[in-house]
Amino acid sequence: MTKEVLHVGIAQIAPVLGDVEANLEKHLSYIKQAYEQGIEVLLFPELSLTGYSLREKTLDVAMGTDHRLLKKLGEAAGDMVVSAGFIEEDQAGEFYNAQVMVKNGQLLHVHRKLNLPNYGGLEEAKWYSKGQALELCEPIVGWPMHTLICADLWNPALPHLAMLDKPALMLAPVNSAADIVSDEFSNPQGWKTNTDFISMTYGVPLLMANSCALEGNSRFWGGSRILDAFGNCLAEAGGEETLISAKVSIKDTREARFQLPTIRDADSRLVLDLLVKRIGR
């Protein structure tokens, strides 16, 4: 039977760059806090187990999906859904910026980042391979979820494609530093606009989890937020480590998508035809 209301949370943390053991302990602490509060879905930021500005440290922290650290994370999660960020090593020398979803000691899903930013102070395309799949996961009956990592949400086609699967919840782990794009571009305002738009346009509750670490000259500003299906902000973090939570409901999603039927009216066949024509020019 589908749960009408889901208690969701975000662990906004400051990962220690390159220290997966210290970061695991931090994860376990927040998982314990979340469990005590009755949270059912807990989201950590992008690369929460490793930190962001890894560069050559990538080799030291990369792990396969059968790594003991991920198994320990899954065991600690119990019946809570936990989503955390890590560097996945597939074949030797092939690395992905990835987000893992675990529950009851099991690895349920891995999303590999699709849109690797390579502008401003960002150079992920230099270090990582691009993901090639966008797959739905339903860790709780009646609550299918999609995960998009940071810049994935800035490629408008990717949120649109994800929403065609009609997820009941969107998970958006990010690593956003205030001035990493340029001095003129406001990341805090940009992320507010971006997440408000996606949530309201598609009628989907959305969790955006940002880091609040200081890595060299990069200050990750936090500001993690939980939105309901109407784009209303239910909970928002400041700039420090914290656990925030809120409750989202299927009732709101039904009403939001009835009032603004974006998915129903997407007309994917027409969009595909127009896209094919444009590519063929």
TrEMBL record:
<dbReference type="Pfam" id="PF00795">
    <property type="entry name" value="CN_hydrolase"/>
</dbReference>
<dbReference type="InterPro" id="IPR036526">
    <property type="entry name" value="C-N_Hydrolase_sf"/>
</dbReference>
<dbReference type="InterPro" id="IPR003010">
    <property type="entry name" value="C-N_Hydrolase"/>
</dbReference>
<keyword id="KW-0378">Hydrolase</keyword>
<feature type="domain" description="CN hydrolase">
    <location>
        <begin position="6"/>
        <end position="250"/>
    </location>
</feature>
<dbReference type="InterPro" id="IPR050345">
    <property type="entry name" value="Aliph_Amidase/BUP"/>
</dbReference>
<protein>
    <submittedName>
        <fullName>NAD+ synthetase</fullName>
    </submittedName>
</protein>
